[in-house]
């Protein structure tokens, strides 16, 4: 089963009398329980693809299916609701709320999604799997960068989303903390059965994925399965 599927995605940005084609008929599927990296040079459309897949950006034409729901054509409100319930995000800049503890940051998406009766067993599993049990009472400023990104991963996973989108999740981490976060994302896929789509320009980071999709000038330019850092370069 595909957690997410894009068909013939086209995205053009218009402005100042010029038009940029950021995505040019991109089709791709991301199977449930897989870890995919999206790579490509700067300006090749990686962020645009991620934003279109996540329903953050309206597509010009084509289709995006998350789980069993077609995003294109839904009202903005419905897309927001769907995103809250079915999509998690991990950002380069962590984006944790500074005044909240780790536990409160992790709880937030459950509250926002209006889960009156969240699955406490799942929440506990995520917290333990990411090694955060001892850090729940800490605020972001009391955590290292790697620990903050682990909290951000837990926050993304806690609603048990169909897909987690990670945008350069190791961009602000040293290589050791980065490797730890990547291992955790891989573990979320292998042991929790989550689907992760990660944008990165780092071959070492991408080698944690089981598949790498390459973009060039807004088009799919190939893919690798079971990549190694050497095979990507
Ligand atoms: P990447 O993430 O691979 O660096 P982007 O998706 O950010 O690539 O950009 C793809 C293309 O779309 C680039 O040519 C970029 O300049 C253009 N682009 C991205 N966002 C906008 C925008 N909001 N307005 C106009 N052009 C944009
Ligand atoms: P809305 O602003 O439409 O109400 P939400 O605030 O519910 O949407 O956002 C849903 C998720 O999308 C959140 O995790 C949020 O951090 C993320 N998000 C919102 N805008 C962007 C953006 N421009 N780029 C990346 N992620 C975003």
UniProtKB/TrEMBL annotation:
Keywords associated with the record: ATP-binding, Nucleotide-binding, Transport
CDD domains xrefs: ABC_MJ0796_LolCDE_FtsE
GO molecular function, a single term: ATP binding
Pfam families xref list: ABC_tran
InterPro entries per the UniProt record, alphabetical: AAA+_ATPase, ABC_transporter-like_ATP-bd, ABC_transpr_LolD-like, MacB-like_ATP-bd, P-loop_NTPase
Limits of the ABC transporter domain: 4-233
Keyword Transport in annotation: yes
Presence of keyword Amino-acid biosynthesis: no
Name of the featured protein: ABC transport system ATP-binding protein
């Amino acid at each position: 089963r595909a957690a997410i599927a894009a068909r013939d995605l086209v995205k053009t940005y218009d402005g100042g009398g010029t038009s940029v084609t950021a995505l040019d008929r991109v089709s791709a599927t991301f199977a449930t329980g897989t870890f995919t990296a999206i790579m490509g040079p700067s300006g090749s459309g990686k962020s645009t693809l991620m934003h279109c897949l996540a329903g953050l950006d309206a597509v010009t034409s084509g289709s995006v299916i998350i789980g069993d729901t077609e995003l294109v054509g839904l009202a903005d409100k419905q897309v927001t609701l769907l995103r809250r319930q079915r999509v998690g995000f991990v950002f380069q800049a962590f984006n944790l709320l500074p005044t909240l503890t780790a536990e409160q940051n992790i709880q937030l998406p459950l509250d926002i999604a209006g889960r009156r009766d969240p699955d406490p067993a799942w929440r506990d599993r995520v917290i333990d799997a990411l090694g955060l049990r001892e850090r729940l009472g800490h605020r972001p400023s009391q955590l290292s960068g790697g620990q903050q990104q682990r909290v951000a991963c837990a926050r993304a996973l806690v609603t048990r989303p169909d897909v987690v989108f990670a945008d350069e999740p190791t961009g602000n981490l040293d290589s050791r903390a980065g490797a730890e976060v990547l291992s955790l994302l891989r573990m979320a896929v292998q042991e929790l059965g989550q689907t992760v789509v990660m944008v990165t320009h780092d071959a070492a980071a991408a080698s944690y994925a089981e598949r790498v999709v390459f973009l060039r000038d807004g088009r799919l330019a190939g893919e690798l399965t079971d990549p190694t850092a050497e095979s990507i370069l």
